[in-house]
Amino acid sequence: MIKEKNEIKRAVKVWATVSKLVSTIHTERHYNRAVKMLEQLIDEVNEKSDRVKESLIDTLGTLIKDYEDRNITEPKEDPIGVLKYLLEEQGLTQSDLNEIGSQGVVSEILNGKRQLNLRQVVALSKKFSVSPSVFIENI
Fold this sequence. Notes:
The protein is an all-alpha fold and 139 residues long. It has two domains: 2-71, no CATH class; 79-135, lambda repressor-like DNA-binding domains (434 Repressor (Amino-terminal Domain)). 63% of the residues lie in helices and 0% in strands. It has six helices and no strands. Helix 2 (28-47) runs antiparallel to helix 3. It is elongated and about 70 Å long. The termini are far apart.
């Protein structure tokens, strides 16, 4: 019991500083800051493994996902509408979709002349970090 009280006291002393980095995300500004910190930490850990930073990555990732689950809804449209929305949202063009095929294939998909296949759905879900289900036609 004494050990836990001492740990709590130490945590409270540093919480004012730590909570600026690690706390529930309530605003888009805080969210964007957390994403930037997460990206920086991932880059650092990719260069040199660090258990403390990896733990912070896990915690920040959880907090970011929680915010996204509460505030960012995945578009619910036809798969091509979703793809067009994501392209526009991220400032991309069809030439940025080379992982799903040639410019001709991408053009046919965006114009509704061709449906996405499973490989393309998987590639797009990874590229845009969304569920593959948003690119699958509801029957």
